[in-house]
Amino acid sequence: MTALKRALHAYPMVAATLLVGVVGLVLLATPARPAAPVIVGVYALLIAAWQAVGMIRSLIGGKAGLDILAVTAIVAAVLVGEPWAALVVVLMLTGGEALEDYAENRSKRELTALLQRAPRQATRVVVDPEASGGERLETVDISDISVGDVLLVRPGELVPVDAVLLDATAQFDESSLTGESLPVERQTGERIASGVVNGAAAIRMRATALAADSQYQQIVALVAEAQQSRSRTVRLADRYAVPFTLLSLAIAGIAWAVSGEAVRFAEVLVVATPCPLLIAAPVAFLGGMSRAAKSGLIVKGGGTLEQLARVRSAAFDKTGTLTTGRPQLERIVVAPGFAEGEVLQLAAAAEVYSSHVLASAVVEAAKARGLAVLAVAEASESATNGVAAELAAVAAAANGGSVARAGGVVRVGKPAWVAAAAPDLVRVELAPGELAIYTALDDRFAGAIVMRDRLRDEAPETLAELREQGVERMIIVTGDVAATARPIGERLGIDEVHAECHPADKVGIVAHVQPRPLLMVGDGLNDAPVLAAADVGFAMGARGATAASESADVVNRFDRISGVAGAVRIGRDTVRIAMQSIWLGIVMSVALMLVAAFGFLPALLGAWLQEVVDLAAILGALRAISPRRAR
Fold first, then answer.
1. Long-range contacts of 347-350 (CB under 8 A, 24+ apart)
2. For residue range 15-25, what is the model confidence (pLDDT) as tens digits?
3. Active-site positions?
4. Is the CB of residue 162 less than 8 Å from the CB of residue 122?
5. Is this model's pTM higher than 0.70 or not?
6. Are residues 359 and 387 in contact, defined by beta-carbon separation less than 8 angstroms?
């Protein structure tokens, strides 16, 4: 009962229509029976006048809509003595908003779930000499958290902002960000992303970013943007508005002219009401976006789904996209005066502050050798080149001994960039599939870390599925050297490989790729320009406030390349279902109009059957939510 009251309060016109209907039915059972059709008819005409005002405003704005059918049907039904049929049409119009809201909420619930679970408050640890233990706890809004604040995260709570772990070890459920269902163990000093769920023990961490700059909040912002966006195809019904209106009026007019009965005109128009056209496409596209969100894909609008449905070419970055981005350490080449462990430790100290996918591999390799994380006073990343970090002090363990050095500036990255500060840099020879990360301390070349990246297990299958879905041309555009990139292309059956590309090079290459639309898949900061330039930009992995996520049209929260094929499939399914739902409504309405034109469908029955058409079109559109039904 409470839910019914809320619904009637939210949709007063529906409540008024139902009230008029109940009053009319009650009057039919009283001596005041003749007043019932008058009240119902007058109310229907008032609603028609209200709708007509909106219709005229739309026409003045240069937009031909479908409201003319509903208005004409109401007026015609009243004039030919069918006020109850007119009331049913009014109920369809006033109830259409409620029905659309229900369908919309149902279709986008996965998107809404991401927004609702976003952390809003946190427990901050404050030093207070007067408190027990010298500190106290306070609950604050996450927008009030500052970088450096110590936070207490209780068991099962969401990590509110990006932070580093202060306790020795802790376990987290990172499935909301990575799709990994098993708990992940983190150690002191490791970075913890906001939005992950703490394990069974309360822990402490130090905030490293403001709420607005933290990873989960960035995802939430992307979801909000996706919900607010609308596509040309969501108003896809507009292109059918004028033809459908003219056809309906023509059938109604011919039926009247041939039969000589004005009631035929009304009987035809009450089954030509436009709800299926107005609702089906938006519901299908919202359903497609919700289905994508359930698969870990944030799609920024229905227009992106429409483009995905028509993709004919695909371009891929290599590292972190076609490959895992977590290469294994092959060997360390050292310069005179440096040891292997020291070079790795220096590189890891800087790479902690990098967003590049290779950085985590360097850090993990240092941890695997038991090397401590060095203190860094300041760090900055040069997009596409590398990271520079000023060390507070260095005490690097190497070959079982200890090498002590004073603080200095470590540079880690591409050889040309590192050589600008360390002229004595020597390039190392690489075997096919290998890559090198160069390291310098101040103006001295320290050495190179040689690693071998691994092709993603699901990459061959994903590219095969894209070819099955009609993608005709595939290319690789990467900043890596040709010796590293071409073996990956050969294993995937991609002959067109563009290596050693700068961001501007990538933009220039994809701009001339045919056929279109083109899908570009990348992950790092250096891919942001080309993701924005492509017809559809697809960002691999949600790596916080990266430019790649901001510039992409699709953001994959789960670090799996299979999401690329999934996105194209969802786009194709969604557009197909939207068109099917629109045509289902049109065909059923035209069939009912023809039946009514021959006098076999009374106006009142036709009005109720039109409600069945509406329901069928909406249920058809909701198929876009379910992968199984969509297939």
1. 347/410, 347/412, 347/437, 347/439, 347/449, 348/373, 348/374, 349/373, 349/374, 349/376, 349/389, 349/391, 349/394, 349/410, 350/376, 350/379, 350/386, 350/387, 350/388, 350/389, 350/410, 350/411, 350/412
2. 888 899 899 98
3. 317
4. no
5. no
6. yes
